[in-house]
Amino acid sequence: MGGASVNFSMALVVMTLVGLTPLSVTSCPSSEWAALMSFKEALKEPYRGFFHSWRGTNCCYRWHGITCDPTTRRVADITLRGGDMMTGHISPSICNLTQLSSITISDWKGISGNIPPCITKLPLLQILDLSGNLIHGQIPSDIGRLTQLTMLNLADNHISGKIPNSLVHLSNLMQLDLRNNAIQGPIPMDLGRLKKLNRALLSHNLITGRIPRSISEIYGLADLDLSLNRLSGSIPAWLGRMAVLDSLNLKYNNLTGNIPWTVLGSRMSHVDLSRNALSGRIPNSFGEDSYFISLDLSYNNLRGSVPKSMALVNYIGYLDLSHNNCLCGRMPRGVAFNHLQPLKPCSRASGRMHA
Question: Which stretch is the leader sequence (predicted)?
């Protein structure tokens, strides 16, 4: 009798545990449900009904834009990409979702307010994409605490202030996009500490100063866009020695001096140095490995003749040498130039050639 009673009790315990297990692995914590409700209350989206699926207490079950970890049932991903108008602001309650690895709230055109400072306390965050909104204020000064971050995209907002020096501590960062804001001040001198960076897009801001030497230490950097800023000084020769750099855009700055021969003798396929105050001659540094999808040197103070080595290039898809001081001579002949318009001799408005 005693043995049967023990067996019955054990069976009851097992049944109870089995009954509880589904509840423990399929329902998100009540604290995270509450955090998402506060997050939702701060946003208004009346057209597409993005939040209509946010019903019930289980935020891991068919809530649009919400992904949970399959094991812990903690909220791991918020993805709300726009199309129509969403207004409001990003509530600090998002910081209560401590297991977040990805936040994408982009292209809504109407979300304003600041980036919640507490967002830097999310230790697992790998992706932060708030692009295409009306967010203002500054980048959190301690952004460098997000050491797991691989992508930081704050493009197309109204962000001001300086790039925080702590940003150079984002040792896993691969993509940095701060385009089309009102960011001021210099590029951090130690930006080269971002060894994994492959894209640095800082165009259309109010950035001043020189191009930091430390950028040359980012081996895998393939795309560098510093256009439409207020950078000064000369173009560093080391830019042409970067092994992976394929696209260099420095147009619309206040850069002076000569074009380094290393830049035009490199293997970059997109080079835009237009609308600066560059002077001197176009370097005679082209070669058989030169393959330019686009090369724009227009609106500078360049002079002299088209370099003879340009005849060696493998391909030039778009070439603009217009609006310089005085560029003379004939364009080289060959397959690489057959689709380009000829260069008119010694005219300030001449020299534009394109596919």
Answer: 1-27
In a domain? residue 188? yes
Sign for the CA dihedral angle at 114, 119, 125, 126 comes to positive
Is residue 21 situated within a structural domain?
A: no
- The Cα–Cα gap between 20 and 3 comes to 26
Please determine, for residue 28, whether its predicted confidence score (pLDDT) is greater than 80.
yes
Maximal CA-CA distance, the chain: 112
pTM for the model = 0.88
Instruction: State the alpha helices, DSSP H only, in 42-198.
Output: none
| Cα 40 versus chain centre, distance | 26
Residue 244 lies in a domain: yes
Query: Average pLDDT in the 68-81 region?
Result: 95
Overall number of domains in the chain = 1
Residue 279 · residue 304 · CB < 8 Å: no
d(CA 223, CA 200): 6
Rounded to whole angstroms, how far apart are CA atoms 241 and 134? 38
Give the Å distances, CA to CA, from 120 to 24, 96, 167.
29, 12, 11
Type of residue found at 37: M
> In this structure, what token pair is assigned to residue 29?
């914590």
- Residue 315's domain spans which residues? 43-354
Residue 141 lies in a domain: yes
